[in-house]
Amino acid sequence: MKAIAPAVGRVVLVAAVALFFVLAWFLVARPAGQWADGRQDAAAAQADLEGAEATNADLRARLAALTTDREIERIARAEYGLVYPDEEAYAVLPPPERDLEFFHRWPY
Predict the structure, then answer these.
(1) CA 55 to CA 28: how far, in whole Å?
(2) By the 8 A CB rule, do 73 and 79 touch?
(3) Which residue ranges make up each domain of the chain?
(4) Three-state DSSP class for 19?
(5) How confident is the model at residue 2 (pLDDT cuts 50, 70, 90)?
(6) Are 76 and 70 in contact (CB under 8 A)?
(7) Does pTM surpass 0.85?
(8) What whole-number distance in Å separates Cα of residue 65 and Cα of residue 77?
């Protein structure tokens, strides 16, 4: 019976050490990983917020420009081709993109 007791003691010791490492993983390593993931998520959210704030600043500047008569006239002329009654509007067409290429000798 004395030979069995050291073997049982070793099994209990190995089980206790394994239980310790499992508990340590659940109590330390796993929350630390979740904390690191939370920091990454917070950094990504901060970057998204900064991008949205920059976009909002651009849109506010655009809105301020659209309240001036000069900007409204510029858009009316450039995008809609509007002119004053005593002016004439001309439109210049762009060149064709490419000519049609036929065979050197038509097959018929």
Answers:
(1) 41
(2) no
(3) 4-80
(4) helix
(5) low
(6) no
(7) no
(8) 16
